[in-house]
Amino acid sequence: MRLELTSMIGRLGLAVERKSATVDGVDGVEKDDQALRDSLRVSLSELGKARSAAQKNQDIDDSSLPDLIKDLLKRIRALKEQIEAKKEELNAVMSDQSLDPEAKRLKIETLQSELASLQGALSSAHTTLLKALREQGLTDQQMQELSSLLMK
User: Rounded CA gap, 14 and 30, in Å?
Assistant: First the structure.
């Protein structure tokens, strides 16, 4: 992962200056707080994202399960994360009082549709996993390993 330290330090210094100016001038505190959060945002490169995902699934990779089942477990884990993120987004929209009622309704319907699609994909992945389990003939130890990985 490659980080540009000078630009990060520069942004951090700018953010601190903005924050101190906000404290001195109390006007626009909320606006400057948002500017502070925006200036402190860190983005990962595609390589960094891939490495992060690889480390997140290291327990699956280290297991003694067949590769097909490992891939299905990774897909299930990713779908669960996407579902949680979509639920959080839906809850945020539902609690947002600043949105126009019609726009809010449309956004909620869209998010609910996306959530239903993700849940359908998760159900399909579980079905595929069950089918693969029947075909693979796992040992008792592998089944225990599988169940512990599914609970994470």
Answer: 17
- Please identify which residue in the block is written with the tokens 């009622």: 101
Share of the chain above pLDDT 70, in %: 67
Whole-angstrom Cα distance, residue 100 to residue 94?
A: 12
Residue 8: CB atoms within 10 A of its CB come to 12
- What is the residue whose two structure tokens read 């997140």? 56
Yes or no: say if 96 and 111 are a contact pair by the CB < 8 Å rule. Answer: no
Other Cβ atoms within 10 Å of 79 Cβ, number: 19
- Say what the pTM is: 0.64
**Domains in the chain: boundaries:** 1-43, 46-151
Composition of the chain by helix, strand, coil, percent to 5 = 80, 0, 20
